[in-house]
Design a protein that fits this description.
2 copies of one chain form a homodimer. The first copy, chain A, has 152 residues and is mainly beta. Chain A is built from 1 helix and 9 strands. In chain A, strand 5 and strand 6 form a beta hairpin. Chain A is globular and about 50 Å long.
């Protein structure tokens, strides 16, 4: 087992899971803060130059896991590793946020989809993109196509 | 503290850190396998539909951390959260791999930059890209520009 410690916590407008936008077309434009613990603040040096960051965090209010589950974006079950379900063998979340600014050990960000108080394990610069024409999005693309054809 | 368990291990051509391509212009096209433990294999259901995956893994041969360090891509030190240094408060690695195929609980992938035997903590579908024109790459872009102007 590998023990992981929080390097900080998310300040988010979402207090409960049901408040986080989910499903097809969900936009994550919410603004919030990544509050890094003072003892790790030196690790933020030069982070301001990056427009986007990866945040690795813990689904700390999720218990247990299920290997197959039905996500909010589809009505069919899929394997947990083909979804972003919180009920994972290791309850790790991954979010790309847009870095708006820094105030000491606090980063102002957009694109928050975590609950308020979520423990942060790591930050990394977001460096490259997969060209859209090379990207296949599996069952999610099918589910989106299916819903967009359904009567509204 | 949050304890994390391996869901599988990387089969990689790299036995030692010095074999992994690093620095400006490093290409990660190496092929390898993500070997998922049989008890988690059901979680791979429908993963074949995705072209790219996020792999969250552990730098299990890295000890301790430093908040400031000089990466192979530059001659100046930067904060650890603005780099991909293995010496992080939580030794988490993150790699985007291209999924070539699946054989049972083994995924054939390209883009491996982990050492052979690296513990895998999580897999997630790679769903979207940040448009290139919106992406700023901080000190790394400066270091690349600097080196491309240097006499070769």
């Amino acid at each position: 087992m590998f023990p992981m410690q929080p390097i900080g916590f998310v300040k988010s407008p979402y207090q409960e899971t049901r408040q986080v936008p989910k499903g097809c077309g969900a936009r994550h434009e919410a603004e919030g803060w990544l509050e890094i613990l003072p003892e790790f603040a030196a690790g933020l040096t030069d982070i301001e130059g990056f427009s986007h960051l990866f945040v690795i965090w813990v689904f700390d209010r999720s218990a247990g896991f299920e290997l197959m589950g039905t996500p909010p974006t589809d009505d069919r079950p899929h394997g947990v590793f083909a979804t972003r379900s919180p009920r994972r063998p290791n309850p790790l979340g991954l979010t790309v946020v847009r870095l708006l600014g820094r105030e000491g050990n606090r980063l102002s960000v957009a694109g928050v989809d975590m609950l308020d108080g979520t423990p942060i394990l790591d930050l990394k610069p977001y460096l490259s993109s997969i060209p859209a024409e090379e990207l296949r999005r599996g069952w999610l693309a099918e589910a989106e196509a299916h819903k967009s054809q359904a009567p509204s």
